[in-house]
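Predict the 3D structure for this chain.
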Amino acid sequence: MDELVFAFPTARLWKLMTYKKKGLIRGNSEVLKKIIQNGLFLRRSESEENPSFKQIIPYAIISNKESFYLFRRTSGQTEKRLHNKFSLGVGGHMNPDNSAETKEQYLIDELKRELFEEVKLLNGCMIEDIEFIGFINDDTIPVGRAHIGLLYNIHVSNKEVSINETDKMTAEWIDKSNLPEFYGGMETWSKIAFDFYIK
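Done. Predicted structure below.
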């Protein structure tokens, strides 16, 4: 069965906020609200190559004070273009949900679902805050033209975080000052998050 993914018309999106071809567009919760309330679900197969819609991808950095949880995707990953790339974020497509909760809550629930698909929080590690940072856009590459990222920072209370699918990725805590060492191997959205938010 073809997966349904949450998307928003590209032309309408750039009427709501200032267009940036590549980079981070700083957060505006009112714009985010309009996108979430007025988006629609499309078949993924039809929208992957369709730049007239932007698929909405929650993308969360995990941090503890001045340290960031850095993932390395292995060749066990299904998406070949991400093999051996470093990633600061967890995230993915938003799929339909039939619960009666608000759309804003649905967005946070999808973000947490993606988080807990990738990692476990152990030994009293808790989410202290989920902070919306802004929108990641990259129209310089084909995959970027059909997607926009919602950048979040998930602040956790300690560093007891572990990977669920160790065959697909590894991860370690890296101090902010040491992140530049990994920059060359980062996927595009992670580079944008680093350049415009972390650095």
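The mean pLDDT is 91.
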